Amino acid sequence: MKKLFRFIIGQVLAIKAKQYLKKNHTQVIAITGSIGKTSTKEAIYTVLKDRFNVYRSEKSFNTPIGLSLAVLQEKESGFSSIKAWFGILRRTFFGEKTVYKKMILEMGADTPGDIKKLIKIAPSAISVVTNIAPVHLAEGQFKDIYEIAEEKGSLIKNLSPDKLAILNYDDPLITAMETRAQKFTYGTGPNALLKATEVHATSKHLIFNVTYGVQKERFTIPVLGKFQIYVFLPAIAVGLKMGMSLQECAEALSKFSLPPGRMNPIDGKNKSIIIDGSYNASPATMEKALELLMELKSDRKIAALGTMNELGDISKEAHLKLGKQAFKVVDMLITIGPEANTIKEGAMNAGMSEDDIFTFLDSEEAGHFLLDKLEPKDLVLVKGSQNRVRMEKFVKVVMAKPEEAPELLCRQGEAWQSI
Fold first, then answer.
1. Of 54, 265, 303, 415, which is the most exposed, with the fewest CB atoms less than 10 Å away?
2. Contact between residue 173 and residue 321 where contact means Cβ atoms under 8 Å apart
């Protein structure tokens, strides 16, 4: 019964979303990729918002229902609340919607065919493909990274020649994608149209140069980690294709802030520092997070790492590798979730003492364990997948001001708090 209700809701919302876009002649900027869709969406919005009539949902709405909710400017989904869904339907049919001429929308894919469903709701004029990584490999999802690339590539495959595809030139699986659309490439290599050079990171900023034709500009953005370069290059590309200069893009991005749970520094208890990557995790993002932790200076480095979900047959291997990677970086390792012992095994196989590893099933319990052991200047990396792990609960326990959780942490809405 619930599935039927959700299906009907989804169909109704999709129809209303399509009607909104058609009626208002709204230009859709679509983003897909395995990692960083929401951060890229925020970066594009930051570049465009002072120049254009543009909207983006603050949520990570990237499923068919979620995409429709984003177009219809809803702030939350109904989750399992029938009352909440009826409220959404009431606003959809009788509420007034602000007219936006541009919308930045995420398009995710958990299974083959998902992107095609999203394109039917919101055909894009500009499509961004960020990266391809091994995620969603559980049974019933994708069989390998090449099938993931094929699915993500379906966003641009049938675009007409008057549309635009903005592509990560540093990812060979993306450069191999077919499209009839105009291509605009970005990357750190010499052959990309939009090139980033001299990329380096400080304890507070990402700094890099960008060249495009005869234009050259230096960017200084308040985020941690060199890997974040791939969040900003597509945003700069969109800005340029919208008629902005590199200087205007640099000025806009100097005020950028990442969404909650995306490697944000937060003050921790006892004058510690937390790097909050609690929103989600995959092997690729875990590796980059640990590389960042290695680069930052601290008397003691701690990693609280949760299970990475939906890895299918590669799950054990990936979690063993994660433990090995953590051993090279941290003084204390806290592992959380169904694969906690596998991460521990990987770290011990690499040479880490069992005395420095602590395993938990529950993230909140793990947070309380660390609370009594935090020392001034400790640097604590927190990262893990969202379902079954919920690492933001760990962060809430160890952050200096838990009353700021609604503003600083991910998944703080009423529906999430009831789960």
1. 415
2. no
Give yes or no: residues 243 and 273 share one domain: no
Q: In the numeric block, which tokens belong to residue 160?
A: 């007409």
Structure tokens at 31: 């983003």
Cβ atoms of residues 227 and 263 within 8 Å: no
User: What pTM was estimated for this model as a whole?
Assistant: 0.94
Residues 77-132: tens digit of each pLDDT: 867 688 888 899 999 999 999 999 999 999 999 999 999 999 999 999 999 999 99
pLDDT by residue (tens digit) across 6-40? 889 999 999 999 999 999 999 999 999 999 999 99
- Helix, coil or strand: residue 185: strand
Structural domain of 298: 264-417
User: Torsion-angle region of residue 115: left (phi > 0), alpha (psi -120 to 50) or beta?
Assistant: alpha
**Cβ–Cβ under 8 Å, residues 35 and 282:** yes
- Residue 277 resides in a domain: yes
The total number of structural domains in the chain stands at 2
Are 265 and 258 spatial neighbours (Cβ–Cβ below 8 Å)? no
* Together in a domain, 142 and 46: yes
Distances (CA, A) of 392 to 54, 192, 223, 257, 389: 30, 37, 19, 18, 9
CA dist., res. 339 & res. 283, Å (int): 13
Please give the DSSP secondary-structure letter assigned to residue 197. Answer: E
Query: 329 and 218 in one domain?
Result: no
